[in-house]
Amino acid sequence: MSSADCSGRTLAFLGDAVWSYIVRRHLVETGQGHGKNLQKKAVSYESAKAQAEFYRVLHEEGFFREEEEEVFRRGRNDHSSGAPHNTSVQIYRYSTGFEAVLGYLQLEQNWERIEEIWDKVKTMKEG
Hints:
Ribonuclease iii, N-terminal Endonuclease Domain, Chain A; mainly alpha; globular
């Protein structure tokens, strides 16, 4: 299946798994704790609020390519479900857009670009 055949929500569904894998792999590989501590650190990268902020900062830096911005808008504007109880609709939609970009890149098998996004986010969080 190509990325063009997928809805924004479908790309976000895949992107959520991609992002979770990258974050959790990093936490384990760098020995950043066990059990609840690992979960707490993962949430600091994986929450809707965190993802929306990552997108905002990278967008303001002009980091994303035009096709990635188009996919972001596709994910953000797909209104097939509401936001979770503890998240505003705007934050949830931005998070969904960020995840859609990751899903798109995975379907395009562009792991290099996914790693570039990860490196920028990791620097932002740790620096």
